[in-house]
Q: What sequence folds into this?
């Protein structure tokens, strides 16, 4: 399996894997580091894969291990779900269908555009400037709790909006 | 556990802000409910989508159609590039995305506001959130050292807050008061309106009441009419009836007290103070306005006072109230509304300044601030591009290439509709620069190496007169809102001067 084959199989998984890494590491740049480290390891083992499923399973395992390794190295987390619960939620995420990725991307794009400037600003700082919620609050002169509430509302708003748009096309979130 | 609770805990978990008891609850909920696992992963998927979306927008493959995306996904070259350059794309991408979002924010934008700032009298704001009177307020904190504000919640509750105060607006039905004096009038439609403090929660049962919350956590409550309910962790629910006053200590324990009405703000007070504040602002502004009559830096000024114009011709338009009671303004409503003006001269330096109340953000057309007739060489077009940008342009010589237009894409959004805003644009031929300002602060600057002076000549405030012989109809460019002064300076005012003018004469 050459690199192009590998990327062709893994790219549809990328959104889920980035979401997974972010949810463990809570910081965009660290999540990207973890993802790149995973790709590097996969490329190093490119001759060992027996097929797409083997490659996908292996990439998830490597990514998961790398994320928890970074957690330990960076001491970025103080609390994690219990191991058994993590296994439960991770396996559900891993098994999700990626076939409607384009529709989701379109839906997300449209829904982001409908957020207020204030919410977009928070999304930008949280996801793309890599700032934790506390830092976002400091920059905006607000209390962390207020930003957490904003983020909660943004997640709900976007989820609902995406669901609505996918439903219009006969798909689900 | 309600959906709301679950989403709150999930968000706190992702923010590393969850407490151990809540983490236990989250573990239990996820372990026992497949539906919750899906909800949890929906947010994780959403986070991944946001990352991925930023990348795809900026990658130069910013197509939105399925056909193009499919082609992209089939491109091995793209895949290889995407994997290795993601980080840079990610960082750049969101800026493009968000700037486009802002640009498109006018129609269909979700409204997260929960209240309106009806008035702010002599308020000395603290922190970055410093809304103007009339502004729609989203959930967030208002903090000020002194002065009074009146808030109209969308539930119908009206609340006066007197400083020093720090309050967090949390929903149309709730507010958290950390410090401040409050007077609330809650109609039947807003029953259940709640004020949370450090030590207790006040739930209104349809009434008018006052509160005085100290930063220490101590508080007093007086019910003027109706009934409120006080809840705290250390005491059983307590009802307070009209005419009663109670003291509440830091632990939330209440005791009855004798109390007069004087320590709480009143609706009459704020109206009186607002009137007095408007009068002093008008007097200060009138003195300044008079001084500008002999200022050689003024090329032309329209103060829209006394329902007359010294120069120019009003076509359509209605006289209206300006940014405080007693200040005049001109309202532009209809497609043809405009003020015809003649402003001769050549300007190697130019400052355009106005106060506007924007009432609409049309998605697909420009709104004129000051537009020279037609497209004449060197003559300016100062206008709001679709969806609330701010732009200054000028007519080119035949065959001349188009310099990059000095154009700030996002200035106004839905939250600024109906609010008085001070906007200003400066041009300096020597510096080859255009700078845009909003409410006294520079919001953008652009290289505009025009190489010769700008001109205005015959034109319109609030509209555009195209050639009479134009072969086809043009899209309207009429301004929708009110304008309560416009000044054209023949100098490039400095950022400090612009800030000072704004501060001195803000509503």
A:
């Amino acid at each position: 399996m050459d690199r192009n084959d590998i990327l062709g199989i893994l790219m549809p998984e990328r959104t889920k894997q980035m979401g997974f890494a972010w949810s463990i590491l809570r910081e965009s740049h660290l999540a990207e580091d973890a993802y790149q480290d995973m790709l590097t390891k996969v490329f190093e083992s490119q001759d060992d894969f027996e097929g797409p499923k083997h490659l996908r399973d292996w990439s998830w395992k490597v990514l998961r291990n790398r994320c928890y390794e970074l957690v330990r190295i960076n001491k970025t987390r103080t609390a994690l779900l219990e191991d058994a619960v993590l296994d439960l939620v991770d396996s559900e995420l891993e098994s999700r269908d990626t076939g409607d990725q384009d529709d989701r991307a379109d839906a997300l794009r449209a829904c982001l555009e409908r957020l207020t400037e204030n919410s977009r600003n928070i999304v930008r700082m949280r996801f793309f400037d890599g700032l934790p919620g506390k830092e976002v609050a400091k920059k905006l002169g607000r209390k962390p709790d207020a930003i957490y509430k904003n983020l909660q509302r943004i997640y709900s708003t976007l989820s609902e909006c995406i669901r609505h748009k996918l439903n219009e096309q006969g798909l689900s979130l | 556990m309600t959906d709301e609770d679950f989403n709150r805990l999930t968000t706190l978990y992702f923010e590393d802000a969850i407490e151990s008891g809540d983490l236990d609850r989250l573990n239990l909920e996820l372990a026992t409910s497949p539906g919750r696992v899906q909800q949890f992963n929906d947010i994780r998927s959403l986070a991944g989508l946001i990352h991925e979306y930023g990348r795809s927008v900026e990658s130069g493959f910013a197509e939105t159609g399925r056909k193009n995306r499919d082609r992209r996904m089939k491109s091995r070259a793209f895949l290889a590039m995407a994997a290795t350059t993601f980080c840079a794309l990610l960082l750049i991408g969101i800026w493009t995305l968000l700037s486009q979002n802002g640009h498109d924010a006018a129609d269909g934008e979700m409204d997260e506001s929960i209240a309106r700032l009806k008035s702010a009298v002599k308020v000395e704001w603290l922190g970055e959130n410093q809304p103007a009177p009339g502004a729609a307020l989203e959930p967030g904190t208002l903090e000020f050292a002194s002065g009074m504000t009146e808030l109209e919640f969308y539930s119908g509750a009206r609340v006066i807050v007197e400083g020093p105060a720090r309050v967090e607006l949390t929903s149309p039905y709730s507010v958290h008061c950390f410090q401040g004096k409050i007077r609330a009038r809650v109609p039947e439609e807003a029953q259940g309106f709640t004020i949370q403090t450090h030590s207790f929660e006040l739930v209104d049962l349809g009434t008018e009441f006052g509160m005085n919350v100290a930063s220490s956590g101590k508080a007093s409550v007086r019910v003027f009419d109706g009934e409120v309910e006080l809840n705290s962790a250390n005491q059983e629910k307590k009802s307070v009836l009209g005419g009663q006053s109670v003291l509440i200590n830091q632990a939330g324990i209440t005791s009855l007290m004798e109390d007069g009405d004087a320590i709480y703000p009143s609706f009459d007070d704020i109206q009186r103070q607002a009137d007095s504040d408007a009068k002093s602002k008008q007097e200060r502004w009138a003195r300044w306005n008079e001084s500008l009559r002999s200022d050689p830096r003024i090329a032309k000024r329209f103060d829209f006072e006394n329902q007359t114009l010294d120069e120019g011709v009003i076509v359509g338009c209605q006289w209206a109230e300006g940014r405080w009671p007693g200040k005049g303004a001109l309202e532009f409503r209809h497609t043809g509304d405009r003020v015809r003006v003649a402003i001769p001269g050549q300007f190697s330096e130019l400052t355009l300044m106005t106060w506007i109340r924007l009432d609409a953000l049309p998605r697909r057309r420009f709104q004129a601030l000051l537009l020279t007739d037609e497209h004449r060489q060197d003559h300016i077009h100062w206008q709001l591009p679709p969806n609330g940008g701010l732009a200054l342009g000028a007519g080119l010589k035949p065959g001349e290439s188009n310099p990059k237009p000095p154009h700030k894409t996002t200035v106004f959004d839905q939250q600024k509709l109906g609010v008085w805003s001070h906007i200003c644009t400066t041009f300096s031929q020597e510096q080859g620069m255009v700078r845009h300002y909003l409410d006294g602060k520079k919001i953008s600057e652009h290289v505009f190496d025009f190489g010769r002076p700008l001109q205005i000549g015959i034109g319109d405030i609030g509209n555009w007169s195209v050639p009479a012989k134009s072969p086809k109809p043009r899209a309207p460019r009429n301004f929708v809102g009110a304008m309560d002064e416009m000044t054209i300076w023949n100098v490039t005012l400095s950022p400090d001067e612009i800030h000072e003018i704004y501060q001195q004469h803000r509503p």
About this structure: Chain B touches chain A through 79 residues (CB under 8 Å).
